[in-house]
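Sample entry (181 residues):
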Amino acid sequence: MIVTDAIIAKGFSDPRNLYEMLRWFFGFGEGKILDKRCVGFLMHYRRFGDVFVLRFDTGEEIVSTLVEFCERERIRAGTVSAIGAAKEIEIAAFDVSTKRYSKKELKENHEILSLKGLISSVDGKPHAHLHISVAGHDFAAEGGHLNKAVVSPTCEMVVRKFDGELSRKQDEETGLKLLEP
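Predicted structure, serialized as C-alpha cells:
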C-alpha cells in the first residue's frame, strides 16, 4: 500500500501510465533513459491456443523483443508474420561466394509490407530468422534478412508455436546456421 500511496502522491493516478510509474519508482529521473525492453512484461499480446498475437509499441526493437518473448513463452519452434512500420532498419543479403552478409541501414520511417520468419533454437536459446520487405515515402520496396528494426509507431505480429524444438547448427560449407528439422 505504501508504494500505491507514493505513486498516487506523485501524480500517477492513471494506472495506464505504468511505464512512467516504473520510471519514477526505480529512480529514472530527468536525463536518464529507461529502455522499455527492461520492463518487457508490459508487451501487449494475447494467446489463442498455439497462436500469439503481439503488438509492439513505438521504440521497441523487433528482433530482440521477439527473442525475449520466445524465451519467456518457451517457444523453440514456430512461424512469424507481421505488418506495421519501423525506422532504424538494418537489412542484409548473404553473398554465397564470400560467405558474408552485406548490410544496409534505413534510418527513416518505412511501412512494413511483409515480415516473415521462422523461430528455432541455437544452443537451446530462441533464434529468430526473419526476412522483411519495406517501403519508404517514395514507395520503393527494399528488403532482405532482418537484423534489427525499431518500431515506429506500431507493429502487429502473429507467432504460431509448434510443438517441440527446431534447432540450427553452423554449417562450414555454407557459413550459415542451417535448420536441422
